[in-house]
Amino acid sequence: MNFFSVFLLAFFLCFGCAKPKPKTPPPSIQWTDLDEPPLYSDCPQEDALANWTCFTQVLQDKLTDKLVPMASSFPKGTDTLFFTLKVDTLGIVYVVGLQKESDTLLSALVLPEVSKTLASLPPLQPAVKTNLEIPVEVRWSLAVSVTK
Predict the structure, then answer these.
(1) Cβ of 59: how many Cβ atoms within 10 Å?
(2) Are residues 124 and 43 in contact, defined by beta-carbon separation less than 8 angstroms?
(3) 8 SS3 class
(4) Are 121 and 63 in contact (CB under 8 A)?
(5) Any idea which of 25-34, 66-75, 88-97, 134-143 has the lowest mean pLDDT?
(6) Domain coverage including residue 105
(7) 144, 81 in Cβ contact below 8 A?
(8) SS3 112
(9) Which candidate among 13, 79, 111, 123 keeps its CA 20 to 30 Å from the CA of 86?
């Protein structure tokens, strides 16, 4: 019986204490130059930076056209508005907010118009995280001049 007890003890010591499997690091979710930004249908370019520049320029132009006629009702000294925007994984653009929104009247006046303008855009191709090959949500700030 003693031999059997020693055998069981040795067996459990050798095979019962398995080493934990090493954890694989999670994939990188930091934005890199290789990732593809959202793509507006009028901006098909090979270069990701050119796509991003074209995309933001189209948004700035459309928002400027909408906001310049309203500029007379903005507080004095307001020449540029900074919006936080988001493109979701389906390619829909949303306004998240107006930066430095100390003036709630300005926010109430501007945000609905900006939301309507963004909703009128055709769907975009969402940003793509290339190392994961999946569409991702992107948020950024966009400066819009309200003077011509």
Answers:
(1) 23
(2) no
(3) helix
(4) no
(5) 25-34
(6) 34-145
(7) yes
(8) helix
(9) 79
How many CA atoms does the CB half-sphere of 126 hold within 13 Å? Answer: 18
What's this model's pTM, rounded to 2 decimal places? 0.70
Q: Is residue 23 part of a domain?
A: no
Angle between helices 104-119 and 48-67 (to 10 degrees): 120
Q: Is residue 88 part of a domain?
A: yes
Count the neighbouring beta carbons within 10 Å of the beta carbon of residue 130.
13
What is the Cα–Cα distance from 109 to 78, expressed in whole angstroms? 13
Domain count, the chain: 1
Does some domain include residue 19?
A: no
Q: Is residue 132 part of a domain?
A: yes
Backbone region of residue 93 per phi and psi (left: phi > 0; alpha: psi in -120 to 50; beta: other values):
beta
* Ranges 36-45, 66-75, 81-90, most confident: 81-90
Q: How far apart are CA 75 and CA 41, in angstroms?
A: 35
Measured distance CA(71)–CA(59) in Å, rounded: 18
Q: Is 83 exposed, middle or buried (0-12, 13-18, 19+ CB in 10 A)?
A: buried
